[in-house]
Design a protein that fits this description.
alpha+beta, 4-stranded antiparallel beta sheet, 16 strands, about 35% helix, about 25% strand, BioF2-like_GNAT_dom, Acyl_CoA_acyltransferase, GNAT family N-acetyltransferase
């Protein structure tokens, strides 16, 4: 008996640039399906991008430029980009860049190996921007392929880098990791807990799904504003009345990734870490503590608690995400350098890129010219 004949009907390949919230909502199901197939991080999920776009301030200075690669009615590639106007220059960057620690394209694992470069070429040809700046690229980010002369157009490595610290090892239990710390590190942890326990009942816990998140998020924003003011910084994520943090946290919760750890002293939150768990890794998105208890280092105590909690449940890595803060470095067993790339389109963009390069060369020259500080006497 003859086997049935299967006709291979080629799909229609096409590209698109999404520029409106309406279209973003329409393609969300196809994008979510691609995200599942590609094993993307939450920063590349359509709900994350949509939540950011709904709540981002200064939207009049921004525009969506989300590139899509279609294979028939199946979405095979996404480069989620947006522009932000600075001093008259339209800078093309990752959508939700300010709240996304790792940037990359999203490509189906069984798609054309050249899908990313072809999609980027289409986005580039459509224009709508002057300068390109894509940062926070992990070493294995797929968009690194765009730096190859045959693939990338107008893109080159940029001098700006960031650092990401992790805790990773073969520990089977959290207590095993704890014992690898220095004697001073273990003493500081115990001393901090003892100091707080002298004031009341101290409890570390993972927030239940049924627990209301709003009071915790308000507490996080309040404590973060205190920290930012003390260090002369600002972030729209924690502005009074800002909906951004709640919107992004809701996305994590809806995807089943959210893990909020709190350290409570007599039911008063003295430290919080808003984390998410993905691909066997605990990722620390937002952490903060009450400066009233700074002497006891509640943030450090909470961090050591959730690290042990994570290893107890079989997770392989704790990722502190972007930022080279000293408290991350002291506990990390690994560090990853995040690179960036830049490019330009049109005369205005090339002039802006040239000005940036000249500024960088000038700063590097002045740094080399500065005399080295002499080591103090013993």
């Amino acid at each position: 008996m003859n086997a049935p004949v299967v006709l291979a009907i080629p799909r229609t390949r096409s590209f698109e640039v999404v520029t409106s919230a309406v279209r973003l909502a329409e393609i969300a199901p196809a994008w979510s399906a691609l995200w599942q197939r590609a094993g993307g991080l939450v920063f590349q999920h359509p709900d994350w991008i949509a939540a950011w776009w709904r709540t981002t301030p200064q939207q009049e200075r921004r525009a969506l430029r989300i590139g899509l690669a279609w294979n028939g009615d199946r979405l095979d590639g996404v480069i989620a980009l947006a522009t932000f106007r600075r001093s008259g220059i339209r800078v093309l960057e990752w959508a939700a860049k300010d709240h996304s620690d790792y940037g990359d394209a999203l490509v189906a694992p069984d798609s054309d190996p050249r899908a990313t470069s072809r999609l980027w070429q289409y986005v580039f040809d459509q224009g709508g921007f002057d300068l390109i700046y894509l940062n926070r690229l992990l070493p294995d980010a797929g968009v690194h392929a765009l730096l190859e002369p045959a693939h990338g157009k107008a893109l080159r490595p940029n001098h700006r880098t960031e650092i990401s610290y992790r805790v990773a090892g073969s520990w089977q239990r959290g207590a095993e990791w704890f014992e690898t710390l220095s004697k001073k590190g273990r003493q500081n942890y115990r001393r901090g807990r003892k100091f707080m326990e002298e004031s009341g009942a101290l409890r570390f816990r993972l927030l239940d799904a049924e627990d209301p998140r709003e009071p915790v998020l308000e507490r996080v924003a309040t404590l973060k504003r205190l920290w930012l003011a003390r260090h002369g910084r600002a972030s729209d994520l924690f502005d009074k009345g800002s909906p951004v943090l709640a919107a992004l946290t809701s996305v994590l919760a809806d995807l089943g990734l959210l893990r909020i750890f709190v350290l409570e002293l007599d039911d008063k939150i003295v430290a919080v870490s808003i984390n998410f768990e993905q691909h066997g890794t605990m990722m620390a998105f937002v952490t903060t503590y009450d400066p009233e208890y700074e002497r006891a280092s509640p943030g450090m105590v909470l961090m050591m608690d959730y690290i042990q909690w994570s290893f107890d449940r079989g997770l392989a890595t704790i990722d502190f995400l972007c930022g080279g803060e000293d408290f991350k470095r002291r506990f990390a067993t690994q560090s990853v350098t995040l690179s960036s790339m830049t490019g330009a389109r049109g005369l205005r963009g090339h002039l802006a890129a040239l000005a940036d390069q000249v500024s960088h060369v000038s700063k590097s020259w002045r740094t080399r010219r500065q005399p080295k500080a002499e080591a103090p006497d013993e």
